[in-house]
Specification:
3 domains; 14 helices; Rossmann fold; DNA-binding; 434 Repressor (Amino-terminal Domain); homodimer
Chain lengths: 339, 339
DNA sequence: CTGAAAGCGCTTACAG
DNA sequence: CTGAAAGCGCTTACAG
């Protein structure tokens, strides 16, 4: 925190009777500098307390920030609470480390200031974590002339979407889970940014603002045909404990098969089923998405996907690489929680 | 991702026959510009596809980045796995939001490239998450002439340490937990960056490289007097599940009171005790640190502290505020897991 | 192996 | 209400 005068390359150059650019070379291409010059420059730098090239000036000159911005549509605390969001960010961070890139977190809450904060980040590209179709930040980010990766959607011009085919995976998962069931039900992610937990009956997927959720619901509906009476419980967050109440409310409708939109939500259903003494899968079939480490242990039927890999893909896009060739991989992994 | 030519303020100025600085005023102090001029400038900007002031150029000119860097001594995935680290980061993020500041994550792994990554972050100040005394990144960060907050220590010249008095809190917690105990034991955070889990007997605190861990151990020793035979199990990470094995190893030594260095580790002990049919606190007294949401539910005796508040303090320091007046607050909260 | 010059895109007092 | 000038600290071809 020593707030010494700022020492610049020019100061160092002056001190040892050399040009500023030679000092620059000492830091950027030391091989091109005579050993004796290098030594003198380093000595002068040490004497003056020069701290090395200023990263901001360097970024301006190189027209390259060496950093990507990750736009989160939530308070950080919530984002980190979600195990899949964490896996995703870990994937992003891995690419950043490999490429020596920085990682700027930009939590947004829907406030007007979000726009300025997003615009004023000194980054070369952006990753937007799943958001609603109408999120105003989306258009702003895409209008910045920098590469943008959107995880999970929505699809917008100027951005690449990374994620699995949610509708197809839902179709297949519903086929497995609802096979032989007479009273299917769904435990769903939030429909909208308000995240109001509730129990609905046969809600229209069109009313769902989060594309991932909407597509999964559509996939489930594809399979089901008549969905007029389908109980759909909507949670506030992707959290096992937090979802306990809605899982209970859902089981109150006495379903015999539940598709939940994540492992965490599926566990919430299993927890609730356990409290009621229901046998799984005999009385109740349950399935989810993600296939995190706990899913295998619990024998959970789930859609296997790698948020880590998707995080990597997003980071590569934000860094300006050509996009990954294919959609993100997924597969339905059938275990013992379904019949 | 439209990679249009870059449009600058000068282009906009030229386009509508105005000086570049007037354009600048339109973005920074629109009140000082004649309404008609403002209109024309905005029109020209729209026509040209000008995206607003470049954040990097602005930062260079203003000598202010509007961002703080958070140095994590681990892969992101691990850092996020720790509930207290998440609370801490949430506190940091809250201040960032209030102040319109950016938040740059800088995970370090001990590699040589860490140094460059830390130096090349365009930030106004740094927060260093608890690290070992000898972490080379520490000296680098402190030599940058920017404010530095270190959470938990080590104390180094040029940085402010934020955290509780670990030794005093340990002394008090040990007094509560070991009261009437004949075979005390400790479940400890890692001693060193290698994070090798192991069971030791009366290890010297001086050998512990993480200051938080060292001070807590010292506080416990203060209370104990003779520690020659004290079983101390060391975990790899602050994670309830991960710590299960070492908790078991510790209970194999048949202690009747365990001080664990966090709620998570205390839960690991309670889990292990449950598996053995031990009664708490009759057969085994257990206590921890943090007082997270689960602690109250479990009736855990623990050291109450707010990592969120400490994250806020660190962020304020990194932003250049005078430091918080006092040390971080803590108190021993006695519940039912101790006698 | 080293230097002179230009310029990255912007903002800041200072005049007028 | 608007402009001319300087400069934030650095790097990049290009000469020599």
């Amino acid at each position: 925190m020593s707030r010494a005068e700022r020492v610049t390359m020019a100061d160092v150059a002056r001190r040892c009777g050399v040009s500023a650019m030679t000092v620059s070379y000492c830091y950027n291409q030391p091989d091109r500098v005579a050993p004796e010059t290098l030594r003198r420059v380093r000595e002068a730098a040490a004497e003056l307390g020069y701290r090395g090239p200023d990263p901001t000036a360097r970024s301006l000159r190189r027209r390259h920030n060496g950093a990507i911005g990750v736009v989160l549509g939530e308070h950080l605390a919530y984002a980190f609470e979600d195990p899949q969001a964490r896996r995703f960010l870990a994937g992003v961070a891995e690419v950043c480390r490999e490429r020596g890139s920085g990682l700027n977190l930009i939590p947004t809450t829907g406030a007007a200031e979000d726009i300025e904060r997003v615009k004023s980040a000194s980054v070369d590209g952006y990753i937007v974590w799943t958001t609603v179709d109408t999120d105003p930040v989306l258009a702003v980010v895409c209008g910045l002339g920098k590469p943008v990766a959107v995880h999970g959607g929505p699809a917008v011009p100027g951005a690449r979407v990374v994620g699995i085919d949610n509708r197809a995976s839902a179709r297949e998962l519903a086929a497995r889970t609802f096979a032989g069931a007479r009273r299917p039900a769904v435990l769903s992610f939030p429909f909208d940014r308000d995240r109001r937990p509730r129990l609905e009956t046969g809600p229209s997927p069109d009313a769902v603002a989060f594309p991932v959720t909407r597509e999964r619901l559509r996939g489930i509906y594809d399979r089901l045909g008549d969905t007029g009476g389908l109980p759909v419980a909507v949670v506030a967050r992707n959290d096992r404990e937090d979802a306990a109440k809605m899982a209970d409310a859902l089981l109150d409708t006495e379903p015999d098969a539940v598709v939940a939109m994540s492992d965490q939500l599926a566990f919430a259903v299993l927890d609730a089923a356990g409290r009621r003494g229901l046998r799984v899968p005999e009385d109740l079939a349950v399935a989810g998405w993600d296939d995190g480490p706990d899913a295998e242990r619990a024998g959970l039927t789930t859609v296997t996907q790698s948020l880590f890999a998707q995080g990597r893909d997003c980071a590569l896009i934000a860094l300006g690489d050509r996009a990954p060739k294919t959609e993100a991989a997924w597969q339905a992994t059938v275990r013992t929680t379904t019949r």
